[in-house]
Amino acid sequence: MSRAVLRRAEPHRAEPSRDGSHGAPPSPARRRCRCRCPGGSRCPALPSRPSPIGGGRSRPAPLPRRAAINGRGGAGERQRRGRAGPGIGTGMEPGLERWAHGALWAALAGSLALRAARRAPGPGRGLGPPLGRGLVLPLALLAALQSLCRAWLPLPLGLALAAAAAGLLLWRAAPRGLLPVAGRAVLVTGCDSGFGQATARHLDTMGFRVFASVLDLQSPGAQELRRSCSARLTLLQMDLTKPDDIQRVLQHIQAHTNSTGLWGLVNNAGFNDTIADAELSPLGKFRTCMEVNFFGSLELTKGLLPLLRSAGGRIVTVSSPAGDMPFPCLAAYGASKAALSLLMDTFRSELQPWGVKVSLILPGYYKTGTTCDPAFWNLQKQRLLASLPQELLQAYGEDYVEEINHQFIQFMKVAVEDLSAVVNSITDGLLAANPAVRYYPGQGLGFMYFIHRYLPYFVRDLFLKGFFINPKLPRALRREHHNDVKKA
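^ that's the sequence the OP posted. Answer follows.
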């Protein structure tokens, strides 16, 4: 007979109890598991009781169906999920866990409410849009992170991770302390209209000594600045495509700020008058965009660097998301803004030892200057059609160019008129003790950059076409054109 059979036939031997006596096995009432699972005295962790027949050992009581499928009982399930009872896993009950995470959210809500109450606008403080506008996505991500922590991590570790994420959110929501103006001097380019004009007016009300460059001293924008601003504001005529204009402005600013240095330079002037495919855009438009948006800003910045270094000042440059993403029909403008953004990132790294801080502004779609003037864009369309070679015009079709122009005009009709978010970002870049490297004023930019950074290329291209301009196929690619060719 095998050993297994002999063992099963062995009679039950009473083990000595704690008081040294040899007695019968404990009664079912005293056989309770320490893990307090629903199985009670039938818990598989308890030793088996002797079978009443034959003195052998009986099989353990069957587990509930769910526990049998998972391979563990209720206590084991709680331990696997990090929410075990006392003495197992985290050592905290689920109720206590809910209270801990709830307290974290309560503290976060209270801190955000307190910060929102402290953001009431005051004299000389450009505080921008309401606090909660840019916190919807971060709060949603925090809620998702907290759910994952509760499901897969022990309570102390999950709570610590969620608290760290909440602290980061509070730090981002905190308004940065602004430095005193104290008669600092700032040069703002492109003040005829749009961001430049609004920024020059706002900085003048804050007490800055503003040098505002315009293309024409008699333009409506220049006249408006003369009427609405104080005597501290000085208008300067400058065309960034003309080196003589740049040198004249440099000499004027150096003569008036040589003793104190120049605190800030706002590179705002920009140019774009072509909305078309890269193949349809004249080469001269590429050169003009590069001259204004890149080379002009480069020459002006290099000329002012000695004054900026002496003051430990700021360089704030208005670029565009078109320099980061391949917006259709903006090849000339986007290429110049991409070069400008990379140049300013290089300046930021190189000027850091001098204490000069460099920031980029990447605004959304706003109504500035001629961007929302249908007459202007219709005129540019006619000039483009007149300049196209006949071969290109036959391949793309005149209706293709007209549709692009129409879609752009329709897109700009919903552009934002309130420029305060951009102006406040520029102000923060000039006066914040630790300004951000990049500012994204405008609605939907966070979602747009998320798609651009994390999704496949074909998804990015489809999104930009659906969001901005998505014309029909060029004439040579249409089916009806092929049918006409076959008939001929």
